[in-house]
Structures
1.
Amino acid sequence: MRRKLPLSLGGRDRLMNKSRRVVELYLDDSEASREQREVIGKIRRRFPNLNVQEFGLQAPQAFERGIFLAPGLVIDDVILGLGRVVSPGKIRRFMEQREEPDDE
Amino acid sequence: MGFEGIYFDHAATTPVHPEVVEAMLPYLQEGFPNPSSIHAAGRGVREAVNEARERVAGLIRSTPDEIVFASGGTESATMAILGAAFKLESNGKRGHIVTTAIEHPAVLGACQFVEQRGHEVAYVRPNTNVRVEPQAIIEAFQPETFLVTMMYVNNEVGTVQPVREVAQAARERGILMHCDGVQAVGKMPVDVGELGVDLFTFTGHKYGGPKGAGALYIRQGVELTPLCAGGKQERGRRGGTENVPGIVGFGKASQLVSVHLEENVRHVRQLRERLLEQLSNISSTRLNGDPAHTVSHIMSVCLIYVDALLLVLNLSQRGIYLSVGSACASGKLEPSYVLNAAGMSDFASFCSVRFSLGPSNTLEEVATVGKKVAELADLLRKVRRPEEIGQCDENCPCLWAGGTA
């Protein structure tokens, strides 16, 4: 059984790629999931170029990422939250880190 | 097709050695007959099982007759604990068992099961270095104590427990001693006679063998009530058609590791030292456990203010496989009961990851893992609020129950 790795070692890791902003939300029908969706809604006002995708816990993407608790939050291939709501501040700090200019 | 990624989770299971696969294959093909059959085809397979038994016995310096094959470590430990309890019950009695609070869930589960049947169980806590003091175990003995069960090496932190001392005290008092040796066998020399135990659990998938085959050493003269009583296999001690390919693989893995044990230990020690060097470059990091009594292949590291589960999942995304002690139960994340038992706080537990190395790992892999762990730890720390970070370092009281983060 060949298992596809979402990221290869040293390959197309978006950790180092600042141009795309992809947000993956892994949700169920819990209050926490609703809250996480709202948080992302607020974040979009600050970062309008977000590509937000929603998945359930049974989605293949959830399996590949290892997300087994909702809400799950992945931004640019970094898993930032699992099983609890990630605050707007934390998301903002992550996004702003990624906006820092490269050192020459 | 080959395994992709860097596997640093050898305490969970290990890659099956190619020679083990080769040894097993015939018993998935032409070697299918039942080893209990009286015809020549069955007798041939019986010989393979006997040879495996000798190899497995050789690894722990027991005799082949003292080896009972089982489906793995969990069944083996269950056979020991329930078998001893049921034997006592057959005389109309209930008794007392001493164990530790840091045992594997298989042992704790078996102890909790016999508690429900009316036996009493004492769970002795370790010190803050995740090592149980032998005197604490001995002081827990009561006149009704019929069994003490303790692990040799803790699976989460790697601390080596004082089995020899406890076994001697148990023997002097006529108390049966069971030792869970799953994380020790194949990683360090083991001699069950010299250890002084009566019952000893181990399994081959921790050292290059297949899953689904383990063993219980039962010292000659010790009697247990069998759990699978319906067949004559394993001299009536564990009925059921044998998992021949698994047992053959178990035997082969035992033979291989016997030959290569010293060089494996040396290699893994070198990897550990290099990994420790790498991790020491990450600030606010603490090695959990007892540095003087820890096996080389397991390291539990507390990376303060790094969410360990997120770290492990992000590393997994990048093809690096580690483990955490905390667990998911009923949709909630629970802290490690092992670290909690040692007095560590939930905060410390949720920041702790386990690296477990094996002979197949390389220094290059250690370098890659060190680098990626540092990168991700830095990123995960930075997204916390500055006031969350506080002034904590590896000596902070917040790592211990009753402290604050």
2.
Amino acid sequence: MAYSDKVIDHYENPRNVGSLPKGDTNVGTGLVGAPECGDVMKLQVKVNPDTGVIDDAKFKTFGCGSAIASSSLATEWLKGKTVDEALAIKNTDIVNELSLPPVKIHCSVLAEDAIKAAIADYRKKQEEQKGAPVGAHAQPSA
Amino acid sequence: MKLPIYMDYHATTPVDPRVLEAMLPYFTQDFGNAASRNHAFGWAAEEAVEEARQHVAALIGANVKEVIFTSGATESNNLAIKGVAEMYREKGTHLITCVTEHKAVIDTCKKLEKQGARVTYLPVQKDGRISLDDLRAAITDKTILITIMTANNEIGVLQPVAEIGAIAKEKGILFHTDAVQAVGKVPFDVNQAKADLVSLSAHKFYGPKGVGALYVRRRNPRVLLAEQINGGGHERGMRSGTLNVPGIVGLGKAAQIAKQEMATESERLRGLRDRLNQKLHQNLDEIYINGSMEHRLPHNLNISFAYVEGESLLMGINDVAVSSGSACTSASLEPSYVLKALGAGDDLAHSSIRFGLGRWTTEEEVDYVVEKLTSVVRRLREMSPLYEMVKEGIDLSKMQWVTH
């Protein structure tokens, strides 16, 4: 299986590997995937609560080269985006940027899930800090 | 030292130059059809084929008349299993095999199941070997064949073939063994194994691809096979088709060399394999050997590097040719069924690397692989959320994972 140059570059020089403090209310953590499936991604964002802009993003990934590259790319894209802009990132954007073959599309899906999970975690923490009842927004009205 | 390094000798082996040299005349000069009985070209080819048959027979302790040439072990396995199932249909329709067999055996059994046969797939124990009690319990009065491999292609684990053969003999059941990974590497004798049918392949022991053999016992008992390829009645009617003379000559030469050099070669490789294993264990924590170390081919090592995914590992050692049991390297997206059968957990199957050492593996290469792997595993663990969680004291097995 041949890897695209961009996948190799992210694998060899991963951007933003590391961890942010999980307990920080401005940090959202997303952990998706499962060891028995062969990939687990942890993606974290640190948001400036005043501007809603993502100041920092970090990842750690257990997975194949394409999974590492997808999460590395995701952190690169997240920095400087607002939370709403971040939610607009689609897995197909990652597929196109990294030229992922069909068998690796699940890696990009996982990265999108990780972004969404991290932002959901951040928003939950913000709600809790404001004292709003947990899950106030969990059930949208019909 | 030349890069890339080949350490995947279970997949295939290069042709030994001595083998190639022996084969060459049979392409252009002595190109005759071994079945041409009426001229010198045919006689020369037939003579070469019969000499090769002697070398193969000598390597496995067989009589020359018991060696049938085929296109390789997949064909040998198909012929043995389907040939017995068809020939002994009146006697019974039950076969016994095991879950870690090669696909050439498993898929052949599955095909027979579709045609009405009943197949028992024995589980393996944690060390990769079947339990003889399980085997005895699986036997019924309808059982006609037990097919259990001699050595596994992924984990190199040796099954207790002599004991299996003895049970089969005692019950009057035929015993076939896929001995592809063992023949030419470790001593294998058809009578010691009490085997009635044995599959082997040239390219696994420094012969050419596309040629193999099936041992078919002629006495005590005389094994009959329903032929699976019809035609000119070559190979005592069991395998029609013009003989691949250069390939067969190559198989014979490879067998001759293996017989002469096996003892020294296997000890040399055992030393290198143990060096690889020890050095990796010195450098890295949480690495796990898959399968029995005691009952194992001397040139095989299969290790799981916990918290690191196999394909990303292979990417980091791209100047070393090895295999991984990870899903991502296979078309099926399923991790190795052999490693899953050991019960170690899918996560460890995803983290596994198979090393196969061989005739041209050097100590320098082993040391290079150790250094390279150590640094890649360390780098990937720094990047692994699982490693981080374990270091924080989290029990991964108690986590609620979001499977996808």
